[in-house]
């Protein structure tokens, strides 16, 4: 009897030092981010790939940083695709050989028409923005993705905390939609119809691409 009691005591004490199960840890980690900005109706908190299953704040902030950056780039890409598909171009020539901006087609086809030097300039400019501008240079960012750096404010500090949170949520949602949107435009452009706006044609409003 004494042996049984002693054995049970040892087991219970040892169990106190055994880590919680991986499932319990995962559940706790996920709950930590269920109330973050971006977890909102209609999907709420949605992580089908389990990227946050065992995430800490460092990993979460890194993923949110990447999401915001890609969302902003995609929003610019969608607007650029729509504007150039509508026929808007800069005046003049893109190089000294007389290639006009109007000679550059919209969409992915533009990559084959822009001169090599032009593509190099674009890549260099994007690299400059990535390394020196589109980041928290001053270290004063109030949240992930805050790249104001004491220069651009647009009245942000005049908004209430509730309004700031609402606008941040809007940006994330718009960025998510834009990422899907530009991907769809590129995929549609590579289909046999070569029409990124094929849905417009289906509803009787074709776009002359």
How does the SSE layout of this entry go?
Elements: H1 2-16, H2 22-31, H3 57-85, H4 116-133, H5 161-190, H6 198-202
Helix pairs in contact: 3-5
Task: Outline the structure in words.
With 209 residues, the chain is mainly alpha-helical. 51% of the residues lie in helices and 0% in strands. The chain has six helices and no strands. It has helices at 2-16, 22-31, 57-85, 116-133, 161-190, 198-202. Helix 3 crosses helix 5 (161-190). The longest helix has 30 residues, at 161-190. 6% of the residues are buried. Residues 1-22 have low confidence and may be disordered.
Which class of secondary structure composition applies to the elements? Answer: mainly alpha
Number of strands: 0
Radius of gyration using CA atoms only: 26 Å
Which H/E pattern describes the elements?
HHHHHH
Distance between the termini: 87 Å
The proportion of residues in beta strands is: under 5%
What's the number of helices? 6
> Biggest sheet, in brief?
none
The share of residues in helices is 40-55%
Shape: globular
* Spans of at least 5 consecutive residues with low confidence: 1-22
Provide the descriptors you would attach to this structure in a database record:
about 210 residues; mainly alpha; disordered N terminus
In short:
It is built from six helices and no strands.
């Amino acid at each position: 009897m004494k042996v049984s009691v002693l054995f049970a005591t040892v087991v219970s004490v040892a169990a106190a030092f055994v880590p919680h199960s991986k499932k319990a840890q995962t559940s706790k980690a996920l709950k930590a981010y269920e109330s973050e900005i971006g977890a909102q109706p209609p999907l709420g908190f949605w992580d089908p790939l389990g990227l946050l299953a065992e995430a800490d704040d460092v990993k979460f902030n890194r993923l949110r940083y990447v999401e915001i950056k890609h969302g902003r780039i995609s929003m610019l890409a969608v607007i650029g695709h729509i504007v150039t598909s509508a026929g808007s171009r800069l005046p003049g020539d893109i190089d000294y050989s007389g290639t006009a901006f109007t000679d550059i087609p919209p969409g992915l086809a533009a990559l084959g028409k822009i001169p090599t030097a032009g593509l190099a300039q674009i890549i260099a400019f994007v690299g400059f923005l990535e390394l020196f501008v589109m980041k928290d240079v001053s270290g004063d960012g109030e949240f992930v993705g805050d790249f104001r750096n004491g220069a651009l404010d647009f009245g942000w500090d005049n908004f209430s905390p509730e309004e700031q949170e609402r606008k941040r949520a809007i940006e994330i949602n718009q960025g998510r939609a834009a990422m899907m949107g530009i991907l769809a435009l590129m995929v549609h452009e590579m289909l046999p119809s070569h029409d990124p706006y094929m849905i417009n044609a289906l509803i009787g409003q074709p776009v002359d691409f």
